[in-house]
Amino acid sequence: MRMKLAALLASLWLPAGAVLADQTGFYIGGDIGPSKERFNDTIFNVTASDTGYRAAAGFRPLDILAGEVDYVSFGRANGGENYADTDGIGVSGLLFLPIPLIDVYGRIGLFNWRVDASSPGDSFHRTGTDLAYGAGAGAHWGNLGARLEFEKFQVTGAKTLQLVTAGVTWTFGWPF
Length: 176
Fold this sequence. Notes:
Elements: H1 2-19, E1 25-39, E2 47-62, E3 65-79, E4 82-96, E5 103-119, E6 122-141, E7 144-153, E8 158-173
Antiparallel strand pairs: 1-2, 1-8, 2-3, 3-4, 4-5, 5-6, 6-7, 7-8
């Protein structure tokens, strides 16, 4: 009877151990989800939603801290004959709450963006670097992780630029 009980407890503990596995080290990931772009009417009249995505590479030296570099594309915002393509490279820090079983985190960093916009009578190309911030939650099973995230970008000339994503990560650990 004791052997059966020990086997049952071990089988329950193994999945929990995978979830609680150390997630420090280098990681890569990808996210996809709806993006929303709205530009100031005086600059360019377009408000739209599309599918955006992120490709990320990061390093998590501690359980509560990570640094990430990512490429973000917001897709194409269409407004009649007007359209805008916005993308960029971000560098951010992630701070994780010490909660068992799930990762809850906040993100803050800089986003180097590019907007290519066009309408029948006008077009413009702008670049800049502005603040990006957000929050997310995730879980991991061994090296594989999943996360949900909301991020807002303070791009000059845009009233709203945001991304809600679901994605996966793969952690390589220490060392590769």
